[in-house]
Amino acid sequence: MSTLYTSRYAIGPNEAKQFDTETLRQHFLIDDLFQENRISMVYTHYDRMIVGGALPTADHLTLETIDPLKSSYFLERRELGIINIGGLGEVDVDGHTYTLDNKEALYVGAGVQSVVFKDHPDGEQACFYFNSAPAHKSFPTKKVGRSEATVLEMGSLETSNERSIYQLIINGVVETCQLQMGVTCLKPGSVWNTMPAHQHDRRMEAYLYFDVPQSNAVSHFMGKPEQTRHIWMHNRQAVISPPWSIHSGAGTSNYSFIWGMAGENLDYGDMDKYDPTELK
């Protein structure tokens, strides 16, 4: 079987603050997305976001529907965002082939019946990460390279958070129903992926940490601002961030991460910020 999935039900803040380390990781950490010749995904009950990964090697991998969707094909009522975090790869969308290099994105609109992930013979191993959310309308499929992205230069070396934010699948670059995705790359010497920490009660989010050097790790902070928790994460691991939770992280080295959001609106700046002195 080339498609594997699990479901995660929504957890509230009062329940989460009682969790020990293992229970917290069980509900929010996704550590097995990338398995050779498999499509793996987690169907979350936070805005019905799906977090997935595809690692084609010898075989082509077809995105198949899963039982929770109760649909005849995966994108019957959904939209999809794909970002390649590996070597050169290809995605076939209803017979049209899109080539994706490292940190390039592809948006696929609702109604597309066939999505196939392929490795490329001329590159290193492709590795596809994807998010999917319900869609009320069909928008055109569009590839977005890093040169087409909106780029924000944020932070500073003095505050250890100098970073480039590549807004790939976002309002103003690609038309979507609710899905937004992008890549943030920390500069050498910087480790904080965002500070001040923030939450947006109108949207959930998922993070994928990657380009984490061997023998290094990232501590992901979550929870209510007055009840924070942390999850230690490693390369190519993802974490679910509920709408009620802050999301921030610091690594033992610089790294990159993909952020994906779904929910109430498409306003990237809609967030509630908390100064470091407010966190507990």
UniProtKB/TrEMBL annotation:
One protein family per Pfam: KduI
Domain of life (superkingdom): Bacteria
Catalytic activity: 5-dehydro-4-deoxy-D-glucuronate = 3-deoxy-D-glycero-2,5-hexodiulosonate
EC number of this enzyme: 5.3.1.17
Record: residues binding Zn(2+): 198, 200, 205, 247
GO terms of biological process kind: D-galacturonate catabolic process; D-glucuronate catabolic process; pectin catabolic process
Cofactor binding mode and count: Binds 1 zinc ion per subunit.
Cofactors (names): Zn(2+)
Family: Belongs to the KduI family.
Functional description taken from the UniProt entry: Catalyzes the isomerization of 5-dehydro-4-deoxy-D-glucuronate to 3-deoxy-D-glycero-2,5-hexodiulosonate.
HAMAP family: KduI
Protein name according to UniProt: 4-deoxy-L-threo-5-hexosulose-uronate ketol-isomerase
Gene: kduI1
